[in-house]
Specification:
The chain is of the alpha+beta class. It contains seven helices and nine strands, in the order ββααβααβαβββαβαβ. The strands form three sheets. Strands 8-7-6-5-9 form a five-stranded antiparallel beta sheet. The protein is globular and about 40 Å long.
Amino acid sequence: YVQVSYSTNAGYVHMTFASSLYPESQVDSYREATMDYALAVHDSLWESGALTADMTDYDKCVAIHDYISGNVKYSNELLAALNTSYTFDWGITAYGAMIDRLTICQGYADAFDMLTSMLGMNCTQVAGSGGGELHNWALIELDGNWYHVDCTWDATAFPGGDGTCSKAYLFVSDEQMRRTHSWDASLYPEA
């Protein structure tokens, strides 16, 4: 199996890649490339003015959401390969979202989790279903409240990867999210 997680502590991002499928040297290579690119994306968002010091965490989440949803394309081919071969591909993680700019739902959620964690925000990922299909998305804590964020569904509303995206699944409550998504609510904070 492959596990990817992100956490912050005293201004540092700790990224864990664990795998029973790949040699440690290959996992280290992907971890390093992903972190390097995440830092480059982070820095470019600050340098471009998409992120500024006077922004609220809500505003920063919008900027990260819009970057990911507007610049990463959903890969039906990657999903089909995953569903037919049942083998892991790094494209389904933040690596695919940030380096290849081509991924599936897990990569969108990983990238959002990673970039918000780099800003010191508390984010987790939800494993459930959307539209009857297995699906992953994020939960973000802002000012003591939790919200659902589904960069995948907002990206696929405008599938060009040209910087445009929807905001229909940004800062969504449990009640709103249940209209199209399902998950075991006992495993996650209430939104």
